[in-house]
Each structure stands twice: as C-alpha cells, then as structure tokens.
Specification:
The chain is 54% helix and 12% strand. The protein has 4 helices and 3 strands. The radius of gyration is 12 Å and the shape is globular. InterPro entries: WH-like_DNA-bd_sf, WH_DNA-bd_sf.
C-alpha cells in the first residue's frame, strides 16, 4: 500500500512540475535520474511516466526518450506518435 501511495505522490509532483513549467516543454526524462531523485524503483517510474503519457503530459519514442509535451495546449501531431507506445 505504501508503494502505491508513493507512486501517486511522484505522479502528482511530476505533473505539477510540468504544469507549473518547472519542467519545460521537450525536457527529456531519464528513468534512472527520476528513480534516484524520488527514491523509488525504475519500474515505478515507468508506471508513473506511462500514466503521464495517457494524460498527454509526456510523450515517448520507443526505445529512445520520454519528454515533456504539455504547454497548455496538446500538439495534435504528437498524438500520432503516441499511438505507437
């Protein structure tokens, strides 16, 4: 139960940082760095980033990178790329 609530805290923290433009658009997320920063496993970070992808705050390219997409408006051309995830 503690792990689930910790993931929720990390999700909310990253989402707020994106919405408040602390994480600027196109900022690349590194799973290892985020896991170290938030002191949770990389698997948990992947799950958080997947949830952010579903909310269209983050975009990902397969086996490449995850980056901030949100800037107040969702870029329609990015939705096509997202479908490949």
């Amino acid at each position: 139960m503690q792990q689930q609530s910790r993931k929720q805290q990390v999700y909310k923290s990253i989402k707020l940082n994106i919405m408040n433009k602390i994480y600027q658009k196109w900022k690349v997320f590194h799973q290892y760095r985020l896991a170290t920063q938030f002191e949770i496993s990389r698997i948990s970070i992947r799950q958080v980033l997947t949830k952010l992808i579903r909310g269209e705050y983050v975009n990902a390219y397969v086996k490449s990178a995850m980056f901030v997409l949100y800037n107040g408006l969702i870029c329609s051309n990015m939705r096509k790329e997202r479908e490949w995830i």
